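hey so u asked for the seq, here:
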Amino acid sequence: MADLAKNKELVCQFFEQIWNQGDESAIDRFIAEDAAGNDPKFGVGRESFRQQWRKWRIAFPDINFAIEELIAEEDVVVSRWKLTGTHLGQYLDIKATGKKISVDGVSIDRLKDGMVVSGFDAWDSNVLIEQLNSLQAD
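ran it, structure tokens below
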């Protein structure tokens, strides 16, 4: 039987340490070596995740995931979050605007042996692109 409270805490710490604190070494503590997700840009595996994470940290050095809701069942944790940050580095082909962004999303993470082995993220990337493009005109 899964310890649901422990699984929720693990996911909270995943977001807190990796994204909010920018602790690259936490990637090794929370993401399985062969972890897979639904975003092809993040590829498969811990090292592929690390490469994309670095790009996000450059584009949004103060990136923050505020967890708004957590639901756990067996080895799966669903988190509803709000992503915020300041666009201080290039993201895709959009040069830094210095403006704040805010996007809502959901992650569904499967855990095994205290690590994320697979993840499914749902968020509207077009909202982010629209914010950045509209902000460039300021």
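The longest helix spans residues 4-20. The chain has a mean pLDDT of 93.
lmk if thats what u needed
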